[in-house]
Amino acid sequence: MKLLAFPLAAALAVAFAPKAQAQFGVKAGINAAELRGRDGESSSYKTYYHVGLIFQGKLIGPLSIQPEIQYSQQGGNLKGAFTDYDTKLHYFSVPVLLKVTLGPVFVEAGPQFGLLVDATRNGQVEISGTSGSAAYANVDGQNVKDQYKKTDLSVAGGAGLKLGNLTLGARLVAGLNDINDARSLTGINDPKLQNRVFQAYAGIQFGK
How many other CB atoms are there within 10 angstroms of residue 144's CB atom? Predict the structure, then answer.
């Protein structure tokens, strides 16, 4: 929870800013997500979604700060010689972005902090066989939350258009830390998995 202290404090600071200097809103959009870093398996994107709340506070001139609170589905497809499965990771995410707006156009960038609330997978996966040999099984909705770290640190950046109360944007969220928490007996060559998410979204903001 310490990881979320700064972005939550920023969100509260904007929430209590003078109404003339702050905007509040809602957003929703599509995630194209993948997991990178597992040797012997190729990764590909899966389509998920995100929804959230926006708090934008003006700082100076065209510069503002924009903390958000999101529910975001991430993950992706991993495929190997004998494996082919989808992983779905459920996060509560808090991006804290600096935003520059010039006319209807804006650019934004900053850190994003994520808290994992659930994780499942579907498809053919490798399981432990007898005498150390590999075995494979088909799974449907298998809970794998214990195989992933509870927190995720990313960097986010994007651009978009502000058309009155309507916001249209696109964003890349690139994971910085290893989220894999499934360790082999030796701990050697454990994959280092990172989130990668492309987002397209629409939002409605209120206030001046």
Answer: 18
